[in-house]
């Protein structure tokens, strides 16, 4: 529709109809039957007469249902303005990929973009218009359950992934292939204090601007059409009512023209935050601050028109926000075709297409991180295998957000391994958890029955596990946290593998058989004992529907692992939050300070994580030459080329992710000890060498200086190029201004 027609349509709307565009409800509200309304309506208390004006629907996820709702809605609506259908398509729709944190470990932005393209295709033909993804919240705390949805603890990686996901989803805005992307949770949600979900965030303005905001900004620069506000406060003001963030930063500085939406119930929660007396005041504060759509509360629906009539709210706030929603609908082509890509035949044709599955398998192969290997891997197919542990034959491999997956399509580890060996004995060995209460809560929320099959006779299982282990050449232990132990509202203070599984592991260790441990989790777990007693450890995350195939391909050497940790694995939960890019402090815990009590350290644990950022093994052995710089001096308008020669000293062809970090030695504010500034992926044949170079630019050296100006400062810099964030392969240069 042309803009003047859209304006004409908009001007013909009543105030209530405009407000309706700012209301998002779940599909139950629009169900034909009146009785179905009772539950949700009474729970959020929305005025019945406002329901028909609702502008968008949350989490309705198949073509048939979406088409029915849309058809009935349009038939009843005076202006025939279609509904927008939005859903949480996080790591895939039916072709479920590894969780975002796992994809973050691929360091492969092209691959990540391809996963988003496939998700968009499947979601588009199923009638979905907008996905609440990507989530690019910076995260340094493994206690926070939502680390699984994040890509990384690092600014550079988060920027790249944000761009890859947004461009992957949105593509050319083709109704049959693309959907709109909603970046979330703006802003700083990953900084929740104590790693507790929904908790307060306390960040300095400098850290917020420099580390937390850039990824959202990258999403916007990539054309992202929607932004979700976060639950947390920033500078004690909840983001959903934070004018500085929603207007000054997002609209004025970043020039964002799209739609903003609150997170679920966040407008009403302004009352709990203690910044609004009631729903009416909450509605006013949120809209004035710049939050366009109210997700799943009655605040806007019940109060905005009253606020205008009482002359407390300028109508322009409603007009601007509602018109943005109509523009988005128009941009997606809904006025021409309200069903957009929704097509049951296309659903059958494209969903889970073989090429989608093979991309999912590639994603598993590129995101499982090999943490330990004493040479036991890759396995030889002749070896007799005991596969033990609750993840050995589990289909629960997709993570908490994959409520659209059909679990029958998941390939288990057992199924994957059996493609290589007919000598596998499997038993579950133990339950995942000793106490299932936490899981039951989520099951009931998702309308699912608690799965009793998760309960096993542990003494029988242990007996069987020991017998199989004794009889085997190699024991593969498939262990981890429950998939509902990470994700939303899944913060943990104890990051160990649940007790029943650790007991099982210890019993198997006593048998002194070679052990390959596969770890399934949505977050870094504490793996000290697993490391100590395993011959190899593969961090598998929640790998999605092709998990079993991808993992088996790594175990048997069809694929050489190449993934790198995009987040630190703490040595002890007490180290959280932890990340590689910390500040030095006045009393750094350096080698020179060994034996000195009065430095910044723990007396009962190291400062460093068990496995650091950027770390990950391969079956190849890579060796680095010293860093060489094209010049030791750089001016504002020149660049330096930094290079290394990397050599594959093994018989395996492999992929190495070469990482460049920079440290600004002296500046007007304290700077991180290292910051990732670039990566290069190279494939090296056995014994092949390659030169890898990076260009260092002035842009890379900028930061928020003491005067809050974003710029570089003259002086000495150290550049590091190596295998991971612990590299000390360094060289210095000077920036002259
Ligand atoms: C709450 C979550 O915080 C958010 O990430 C999600 O998109 C919404 N619910 C909608 O389901």
From TrEMBL:
The keyword Chloroplast does not apply. SMART domains: Fn3_like. Residues 656-725 form the Fibronectin type III-like domain. Coiled coil: none annotated. One of its GO terms (molecular function) is beta-glucosidase activity. GO terms for biological process: glucan catabolic process. Its EC number is 3.2.1.21. It catalyses: Hydrolysis of terminal, non-reducing beta-D-glucosyl residues with release of beta-D-glucose. Keywords: Glycosidase, Hydrolase, Signal. It is an enzyme of class 3 (hydrolase). NCBIfam families: PRK15098.1. Belongs to the glycosyl hydrolase 3 family. This is beta-glucosidase.
């Amino acid at each position: 529709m042309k803009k003047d027609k859209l304006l004409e349509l908009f001007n013909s709307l009543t105030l209530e109809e405009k407000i309706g565009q700012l209301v998002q409800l779940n599909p139950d509200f629009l169900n034909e039957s009146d009785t179905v309304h009772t539950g949700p309506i009474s729970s959020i208390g929305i005025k019945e007469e406002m329901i028909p004006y609702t502008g968008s629907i949350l989490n309705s996820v198949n073509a048939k249902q979406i088409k029915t709702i849309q058809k009935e809605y349009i038939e009843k609506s005076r202006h025939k303005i279609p509904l927008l259908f939005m859903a949480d398509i996080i790591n895939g729709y039916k072709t479920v990929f590894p969780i975002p944190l796992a994809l973050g470990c691929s360091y492969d932005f092209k691959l990540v973009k391809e996963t988003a393209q496939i998700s968009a295709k499947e979601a588009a033909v199923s009638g979905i218009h907008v996905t609440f993804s990507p989530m690019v919240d910076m995260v340094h705390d493994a206690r926070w359950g939502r680390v699984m949805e994040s890509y990384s603890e690092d600014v550079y990686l988060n920027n790249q992934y944000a761009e890859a996901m947004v461009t992957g989803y949105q593509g050319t805005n083709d109704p049959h292939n693309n959907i709109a992307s909603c970046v979330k949770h703006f802003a700083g949600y990953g900084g929740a204090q104590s790693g507790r979900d929904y908790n307060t965030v306390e960040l300095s303005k400098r850290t917020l601007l420099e580390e937390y905001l850039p990824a959202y900004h990258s999403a916007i620069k990539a054309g992202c059409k929607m932004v979700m506000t976060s639950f947390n406060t920033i500078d004690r003001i909840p983001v959903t009512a934070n004018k500085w963030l929603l207007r000054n930063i997002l609209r004025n500085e970043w020039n964002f023209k799209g739609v903003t939406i609150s997170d679920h119930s966040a407008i009403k929660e302004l009352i709990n935050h203690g910044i609004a007396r009631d729903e009416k005041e909450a509605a006013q504060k949120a809209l004035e601050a710049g939050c366009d759509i109210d997700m799943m509360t009655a605040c806007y629906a019940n109060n905005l028109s009253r606020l205008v009539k009482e002359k407390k709210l300028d109508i322009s706030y409603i007009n601007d926000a509602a018109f943005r929603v109509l523009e988005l609908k128009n941009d997606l082509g809904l006025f021409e075709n309200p069903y957009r890509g929704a097509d049951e035949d296309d659903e059958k044709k494209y969903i889970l297409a073989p090429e989608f599955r093979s991309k999912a398998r590639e994603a598993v192969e590129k995101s499982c991180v090999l943490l330990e290997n004493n040479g036991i891997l890759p396995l030889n197919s002749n070896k007799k295998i005991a596969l033990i542990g609750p993840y050995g034959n589990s289909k629960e491999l997709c993570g908490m957000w994959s409520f659209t997956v059909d679990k029958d399509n998941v390939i288990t580890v057992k199924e994957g391994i059996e493609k290589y060996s007919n000598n596998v004995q499997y038993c579950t060995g133990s339950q995942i958890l000793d106490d299932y209460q936490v899981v039951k809560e989520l099951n009931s929320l998702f309308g699912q029955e608690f799965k009793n099959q998760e309960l096993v006779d542990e003494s029988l299982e242990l007996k069987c596990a020991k017998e199989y282990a004794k009889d085997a050449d190699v024991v593969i232990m498939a262990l981890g946290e429950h998939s509902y132990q990470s994700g939303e509202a899944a913060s943990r203070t104890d990051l160990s593998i649940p007790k029943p599984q650790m007991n099982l592991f210890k019993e198997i260790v006593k048998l002194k058989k070679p052990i390959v441990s596969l770890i399934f989790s949505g977050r870094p777990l504490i793996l000290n004992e697993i490391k100590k007693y395993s011959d190899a450890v593969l961090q598998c995350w929640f790998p999605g529907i092709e998990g079993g195939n991808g993992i088996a391909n790594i175990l048997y050497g069809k694929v050489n692992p190449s993934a790198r940790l995009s987040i630190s694995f703490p040595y002890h939960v007490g180290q959280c939050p932890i990340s590689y890019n910390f500040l030095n402090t006045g009393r750094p815990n350096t080698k020179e300070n060994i034996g000195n009590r009065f430095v910044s350290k723990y007396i009962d644990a190291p400062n460093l994580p068990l496995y650091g950022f950027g770390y990950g093994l391969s079956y190849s052995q890579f060796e680095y030459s010293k860093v060489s710089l094209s010049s030791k001096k750089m001016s504002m308008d020149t660049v330096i080329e930094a290079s290394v020669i990397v050599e594959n000293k093994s018989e395996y062809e492999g992929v190495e992710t070469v990482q460049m970090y920079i440290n600004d030695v002296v500046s007007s504010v304290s700077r991180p000890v290292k910051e990732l500034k670039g990566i290069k992926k190279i494939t090296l044949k056995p014994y092949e060498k390659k030169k890898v170079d990076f260009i260092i630019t002035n842009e890379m050296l900028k930061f928020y200086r003491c005067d809050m100006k974003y710029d570089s400062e003259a002086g000495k810099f150290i550049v590091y190029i190596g295998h991971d964030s612990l590299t000390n392969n360094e060289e210095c240069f000077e920036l002259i201004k």
